[in-house]
Design goal:
By secondary structure, the chain is mainly α. The protein has eight helices and no strands. The mean pLDDT is 92.
Length: 212
């Protein structure tokens, strides 16, 4: 699904930039768009991550795992990210923060300033949690975090520098934002893979019964 959405977005942006006008279908499949198919897909993946983390938190609490609160924290974090993916709330901070910090260049999207501080804080909070995981799960979780943060902050800052110096309506900028969104989606998929693997390591089998 991710590969299909990425291909559709790239083809749409190519058409928009070199062939024709910005037709309706281009916006429907634009990875950097709002309230379209890729956005709903990304929000759905984040919501599944939240539900999976919360479920692991419940299981961990039942077996007296001291890090169960970290799973619940992940569940809340992913839920907030899913809501933000749909509503783009962080982008509303750009204007006020840009004026406050006179932000330019890589900080043109000024929301990344508190975003960097948040990532540092989360890294410190989850450090002991990551150490407690098996080597395989820890490696996957770390990789997922690097991919996601590399997209949401790293490539975002590259795009900010580009738009501040060149502009937004170019195919190059569209590809920068495409790389950003792809890294975010891959990061979430790696997390889901890691979390399911963790369940396999710890619980072995999970059954859910729906009682009338």
């Amino acid at each position: 699904m991710m590969l299909l959405l990425t291909a559709a977005s790239v083809m749409g942006q190519y058409y928009k930039s070199f062939v024709g006008r910005d037709r309706y279908l281009v916006g429907v499949f634009d990875l950097n768009g709002e309230w379209n198919i890729p956005t709903i897909y990304a929000a759905f993946c984040l919501l599944i991550s939240s539900l999976l983390s919360g479920s692991i938190g419940v299981l961990s609490r039942n077996v007296a795992d001291m890090f169960y609160r970290h799973w619940f924290a992940l569940a809340g974090l992913f839920l907030g990210m899913a809501v933000d993916e749909l509503l783009q709330m962080h982008e509303k901070l750009n204007g006020p923060l840009r004026l406050m910090f006179n932000a330019k260049g890589v900080f043109y999207y000024a929301w990344v300033i508190p975003g960097i501080l948040l990532v540092i804080g989360l890294g410190l909070y989850f450090r002991s949690f990551l150490v407690s995981l098996s080597r395989r799960t820890r490696g996957l979780m770390t990789t997922a975090g690097i991919l996601y943060v590399g997209g949401v902050l790293g490539v975002e800052m590259i795009g900010a520098a580009y738009i501040d110096n060149v502009g937004v309506k170019t195919f190059t900028y569209a590809m920068i934002t495409t790389c950003e969104e792809v890294l975010e989606m891959v990061g979430i998929l790696v997390f889901l893979y890691a979390a399911l693997g963790y369940l396999g390591e710890t619980a072995g089998e999970v059954r859910i019964n729906f009682l009338a």
